[in-house]
Write a structure and sequence with these properties.
This protein is mainly alpha-helical. The protein is 71% helix and 1% strand. It has a domain at 87-255: MetI-like (MetI-like fold, Orthogonal Bundle), CATH 1.10.3720.10.
Length: 312
């Protein structure tokens, strides 16, 4: 049996066919990922305004400013305070997403009447634009005519309306709850997919051995869905760290900077301090934020790798 050898032209076409297949994705990454990051890194070393077409070299002064500037009327270094506030806000939102997402996925995994309807309803919030969802939550938590205050007053749980968005701690928690509600459907869907991939024979074997439902969940189910939970939590952490819409729509960073997370602070620096080179300083803050998110991502990947090695 003879095999026809491909000529140089055929080999050349086969080699470049693969390049052409991935070229659209490479162009997308270059245009929407590599270039923006490179541009931000470049601007972080210059004093830049929207009115100036000739940026002035600033060296490391923008980074020095980020770690030393104190906003009048606020305590601590502005950037570090915003970063710490962001970590706490992301942690609270992520805790709600993971705990409620796991509970919701377990519930939707059961043999319930109308299960498909419940699954569809659980995904609906994910289809709303974040700004619209945030406006809905702002209306729901309004002090004067909000639905939450109306229910609390009718049930006699409070004697006067609660300023959910007017008090620092309440606003911090309320915006985190709104962000968790927006991202919860993604968490539920991903964990539900992980639960559906758990082999039934392992659960049956544990049942035959006399394992209780709690033991079957914590010793069999949870270790198998742990990679899915960690991966979903990683994506949610990155998205939440960059979340802007819910806070801006609901509180604009207030009251008294209680919800001024890093994206809000970067926006304020870029446009409030524009005449003084605000874009360069905002770019420096953004660069540090990217490094922080990268470190968090590496931590997640290390935890995921450790879990996979431990299960082998």
């Amino acid at each position: 049996m003879f095999h026809r050898r491909r000529g140089p032209g055929a080999r050349w076409r086969a080699r470049w066919a693969g390049v052409l297949y991935v070229l659209p994705m490479l162009l997308y990454l270059a245009l929407f990922l590599i270039y923006p990051i490179g541009r931000v890194l470049y601007l972080s070393f210059f004093d830049v305004t929207l009115l100036s077409m000739t940026p002035q070299w600033a060296g490391w002064s923008n980074y020095l400013w980020a770690f030393t500037f104190r906003m009048p009327g606020q305590e601590g270094v502005y950037f570090l305070a915003s970063l710490g506030r962001t970590v706490l806000w992301v942690g609270l939102s992520l805790l709600l997403k993971v705990s409620l997402g796991l509970a919701g996925a377990i519930l939707l995994h059961q043999e319930l009447a109308g299960r498909q309807v419940y699954r569809t309803l659980a995904v609906l919030p994910w289809g709303l634009p974040w700004a619209i969802a945030a406006m809905t939550w702002a209306w729901t938590m309004n002090t004067q005519f909000g639905l939450v205050n109306g229910v609390l007053l009718r049930l006699g749980l409070v004697s006067q309306p609660v300023a959910f968005l007017g008090a620092p701690v309440a606003a911090f928690v309320s915006t985190a709850v709104a962000d968790a509600w927006i991202g919860l459907p993604f968490m539920v869907v991903m964990i539900l997919a992980g639960l559906q991939s758990v082999p039934g024979d392992l659960l049956d074997a544990a049942l035959v051995d006399g394992a209780s439902p709690w033991i079957r969940f914590f010793r069999v189910t949870l270790p198998l869905v742990r990679p899915v939970v960690l991966t979903t939590a990683l994506l949610s952490t990155v998205w939440t760290f960059n979340s802007f819409d819910p806070i801006w729509v609901m509180t604009r960073g207030g009251p008294v900077s209680a919800t001024e997370t890093l994206p809000i602070a970067i926006y304020n620096v870029a446009f409030r301090l524009l005449r003084f080179g605000g874009l360069g300083k905002a770019a420096a803050m953004t660069t540090v934020q990217v490094l922080v998110v990268t470190a968090i991502t590496l931590g997640y990947l290390q935890a995921l790798r450790g879990g996979q090695e431990g299960s082998q």
